[in-house]
Amino acid sequence: MFCKTWVMSALCAVALSAPTLTYNPGAVERPVEMQILSEYFQMLGDKVQAGRSMSEAPVCNMNNAVLPVASPTPLPPPSAGLSLKHVAIGRGTQNYSCATGNQTAAPVALGALATLYNATCIASTYPDLLSILPNVALQFNLTSPDQASLSPSNLAISGHHFFSNTTTPDFNLNTTAMDLGFAPCSKNNTVAAPTGAPKGQGGVGNGAVAWLKLVTRDGATGGLEEIYRVNTAGGNQPATCAGMPTTFEVQYAAEYVFPPFHLKLLQ
Ligand SMILES: *[C@@H]1O[C@H](CO)[C@@H](O)[C@H](O)[C@H]1NC(C)=O
Ligand SMILES: *[C@@H]1O[C@H](CO)[C@@H](O)[C@H](O)[C@H]1NC(C)=O
Ligand SMILES: *[C@@H]1O[C@H](CO)[C@@H](O)[C@H](O)[C@H]1NC(C)=O
Ligand SMILES: *[C@@H]1O[C@H](CO)[C@@H](O)[C@H](O)[C@H]1NC(C)=O
Ligand SMILES: *[C@@H]1O[C@H](CO)[C@@H](O)[C@H](O)[C@H]1NC(C)=O
Ligand SMILES: *[C@@H]1O[C@H](CO)[C@@H](O)[C@H](O)[C@H]1NC(C)=O
Ligand SMILES: *[C@@H]1O[C@H](CO)[C@@H](O)[C@H](O)[C@H]1NC(C)=O
């Protein structure tokens, strides 16, 4: 009802989709998840309160979007002249192999499989909310790669992320709702996720995957040129293959920016 009185796409896009929220059973045994969700709902509540006192609803203006900067070592900035095309929350798994059977070897990255959800308006309106969304989303497994919206928000699906070979991450942003293009990529730069980045579901895991700058390969459509992976949550493999199966998945979430806006940086 608040979406009707408040003609404002951004908050409506993160507003709770209560019927899909089946989190309560066993909640007391999961204090860390509860704390993550409680921080999220508190922030949402504050936005609603702030919105009520505004004379006009905030507008989804991409000029206000910011690119989070890794600290202490930032990724190279976006190339000059690029404008913001899309911001998505990616939710899925990082895949690893321990196929050699060597228990002391490190698991080998096979790639990722994730569903992308449209967060462009949140990026331009509430970057603080956006920065915690990967960790919130990490607490809920997808029921399928085609899950229409991202629990516990109602962000709509905007594409899929997968690997066509181990060095080629692909982003397919061509859905029935919108065609923002297709981007086969290669890695341009990587920096460790900041200290304190969410380690995994329930705060337990091997840490957050690195922040990345990707550049598109030949064949990209939709004017996509550079893609950043930031605000990562979970996804890292254990240090060794000890006790691990031949292949395994680690749940992760991240913010993907296609391509970042001008150099307005969020420290
Ligand atoms: C979905 O993505 C498109 C392209 O980035 C953007 O114009 C639109 O505002 C987005 N919608 C929401 C609700 O974020
Ligand atoms: C197993 O992996 C470790 C660590 O990479 C390496 O030092 C060792 O040589 C490997 N053992 C075999 C049998 O390949
Ligand atoms: C998500 O799925 C993995 C198996 O892929 C499972 O180990 C994990 O407990 C699930 N997490 C939640 C929060 O349901
Ligand atoms: C992976 O795919 C890319 C793009 O199609 C190609 O350029 C590259 O040679 C491939 N790499 C391997 C190891 O097959
Ligand atoms: C997007 O998908 C539609 C339907 O599959 C297809 O006709 C169109 O060519 C695609 N666009 C791009 C840029 O590949
Ligand atoms: C990353 O991009 C910069 C600027 O385009 C380029 O100079 C550099 O060679 C690239 N590095 C890699 C590893 O692709
Ligand atoms: C790894 O990713 C592929 C898709 O790329 C998927 O089909 C598979 O189930 C995943 N999991 C494992 C353990 O390989």
Automatic annotation (TrEMBL):
Keywords: Signal. It comes from the Eukaryota. InterPro entries: DUF3455 (IPR021851). Residues 1-22 form the signal peptide. This is Malate dehydrogenase. It comes from Mollisia scopiformis.
